[in-house]
Amino acid sequence: MTLKTNYYLLIIVLIFTIIMSFFSFIRENLNGKKEFYPFFYWKLYTKPLGWEYQIKNYRLYGIKNNDTIRVNNTGFELFSKDDYYYYITGEANSIKKKEFSEEYYKKRLTNFGGSIGLNYDNYLLIEENFNPLEIFKDSTKYTIKVIFSTKNNHYE
Questions:
Q1: Whole-number average pLDDT of the chain
Q2: At 147, phi and psi to the nearest 5?
Q3: In 11-120, which ranges are E strands?
Q4: What predicted TM-score, i.e. pTM, was given to this entire model?
């Protein structure tokens, strides 16, 4: 592409951004609806996920002989680190919505544990909440909540 073509493309993108930001402003302030264009208020750069200084992570723990062991996401033969993360997060969100029966989730988590080479008696799906700015100062400043347990077969 030539310099002139790049210049015109830049101008078009700039005009599009201004127009979309204007419509987002109108929609949010006059109608009270959530904005639909992420560049308004530059949130895409400052808060890409609408971050409110709280991070939620979901972790899988295995239980064997009454000992609870955290399953580290190191990547596995059948699951990459990303696959593992998305699976655990997807299951946690589904469990929180109670989309399926408890037996369904028990079977899925047990099968998942087996497919990544784990051999635990039971599994816990845990939600960890923390503020990354505070956790560097004090590593104990986080909360955990059991989302699902295959041992007790219950939701949160």
A1: 81
A2: -85, -40
A3: 55-64, 67-70
A4: 0.63
